[in-house]
Each structure stands twice: as C-alpha cells, then as structure tokens.
Amino acid sequence: MASSETMYDALIVGSGPGGLAVALGLSRTHRRAAIFTKPGGAGFRNEGAEEMHNFLSRDGIAPEEFRKIATDQIKKYGTVDFIDAEIVAMEKTGASPPSSFTVTSKEGKVWRGRKLALAMGSIETLPDIEGYRENWPHNIFQCLFCDGHERSDLPGGILTFPSPMYTHMAQMMNLITTPTSGPVTVFTDGAVPEVEAMQKALTQIKALKCNIEAGKIVKLVPAQAPDVGVTVVLEGGKECRMGYLGHKPSTVLAGADMIAKLGVEIEENPMLGPNIKVVDPTFSTSVRGVFVAGDAATPLKAAANAASSGSTAAAGIVQQILAEDMELLMAETKEE
User: Keyword set for this entry (predicted)?
Assistant: First the structure.
C-alpha cells in the first residue's frame, strides 16, 4: 500500500464495471492507480440484482462475483491500490497541463493523483409507490436487454405510462412474450393526459394489443419465495399478478455536488436524467485531467457499456500522461 504522499497516475472513484475497467487498462500499462469503494461495498447501482446479463462471457453471473473476479485479476498486476473509503471531496490542485488532483475521504484522509476518473455512476430516484422499493430491482426491470428473458414465460407489465417513450418499452416487452405469458399489460396509473404525444402513444399501445389497466396504483406486493413476481393492487381492490414489471425511474449523478465543484459540464436529458458531458472519444470531460467511466458517462446505462467506457478512459488517461511527460522532457532538453 502506498503512503499518503504517493502521487498516483490516476485516482479512480468508484469500482463498478467502469472503474474496474479503468484500473485494468492502467495496470496493463504499469500505471499506479488507487481505486475507491465505499466501505461495505455500498452504492452499486445493481445492488439487489441477482444476475448480470448481456455481458460477454459473464452472462448470468452475480454482480458481486463479477467484481470479485475483476478485482482479483487486477491485483495480480500489483500496480493498483484498492481502498475502502467514502470520498466526500475532490479538488483540482495543479495547473493544466500538467494536472493534479486530490480526493478526500469522510475520515479526512487525502490521496493525490495526476488524473481523476469519475466512476461513481448514477442513482435511481425511485417513485413514491408503496412497495416499489421492496420490488426493485428483482421484480422491476429498467432494461429489457439486461433482464426479462428469464421470466418471459410469465405475464409482464409496464408500471405507469408517464411519457411517450414507454411505447418503446412495451414494444421491447412484446419481443419476449411467449404463449404462456400472454399480452403485455400497461398500468397507466389513471387517465392518460390529453396531450397529443401521449394520446398518440396510447394509440400505439393499443395497436400492440396490450392490455390497459387505467386504475390508480395503490401498492405493489412482492411474491413470496419460491414464487417470483409482483402483484399490482389498483384502486378499488383489483389485483393483477405479474411475473415482472418494466419501469425506468429517473436518475441522478452519484456525487453530484463534488462533480459540480470540479466544474465538470453536465448534460441534461429530460427523459433519461443527467450525465457527465464527454468532450472527446477517450471520455475526457470539460475539465482537463478528469475522465468519466460507467453509467455517469452516458444515458444508455448498462454494465457492458460501462466497462467499455472504462477501457477507453484508461487509454485517454495514459495518452494525456505521455503527452505531458513528453512536453516536460522536451523542455528539459531545450534547457540543456
């Protein structure tokens, strides 16, 4: 373990697929890095999910097992320090170029690095529906590429109909319906607004032959093991038992206050939530020396995308470091 005086090549805040991919890329080029995880492994976006999907060679693996395998492989290189610490402050401390950064833990410990990788990800803002949290994410799926197939023999439903984009979710769910699952049920949670875009979407939902339940949603009741699924209880007492539900809650950036203080530019997506703006193909941000990897880098949030962005960010970090080192070397050569 390096001392507190160590100047790392990079500080990686967050150790999901994005952060781990940054660490692996830096390891392969013998760069010194520190990667930070909240104590107890808290804060992962897929916490509560039993399996990861749509990730080559790891389809169906438990998220915690994926992280363990990745961590063990990275540790074999011997260039990355894995540190359990909740980072509460990040600061740019050096001129640009060359850049330098510090991160500070909740306990007040400080680490220094030439580059900073933001891999804290995003956090879902769960709706105020009784029972929602108890069903998230093992009965309520936000991505049908990631979840859904394993329950395609069971009836599926769309939870609420808040925007026209949910027509796409209904189409996606229709792709995996089977003779035993029956048509998709759309729970509109009351009357659909008399807005042109929403009424057009309702027409499309009907064209897809979806069942429509217009009652207000009262609560969601998870099935008791060994059964799976969730019962949607509507106003008036009607109960609809579903094998799973599709719903995409809005997201916020993890560590948003720290990101704002760094001056990193944010992009707002009215339907998908904010993400950190990427200014070049290497996932560099608007602040030189700061890179982003994982769910915070894109509105398209998935483990495979997160890992890909992390690998690319690692390449960007190394390229910046090499360019700065060459600039210093050439300046020294001129002085001679």
Answer: Flavoprotein, Oxidoreductase
Q: Residue 176 is encoded by which pair of tokens?
A: 């995996």
In a domain, 1, yes or no: no
Q: How far apart are CA 321 and CA 315, in angstroms?
A: 10
In the structure encoding, which two tokens stand for residue 197, read together? 């875009």
Do the strands 230-234 and 239-242 form a parallel or antiparallel pair, or are they unpaired? antiparallel
pLDDT in tens, 247-272: 999 899 999 999 999 999 999 987 77
> Which CATH number characterizes residue 119's domain?
3.50.50.60
Does residue 242 share a domain with residue 156?
yes
Tell me which residue range forms the domain holding 175.
132-246
Q: Which residue has the tokens 């107890």?
A: 40
Q: In degrees, to the nearest 5, what angle opens at C-alpha 77 toward C-alphas 76 and 83?
A: 80
Whether cis (ω within 30° of 0) applies to the bond prior to 164 is no
Q: What is the distance between the alpha carbons of residues 86 and 181, in angstroms, rounded to a whole number? A: 44
Whether 94 and 100 have beta carbons less than 8 Å apart is answered as yes
Residue 102 — left, alpha, or beta (φ > 0 → left; ψ -120 to 50 → alpha)? beta
Strand, helix or coil for residue 247: coil
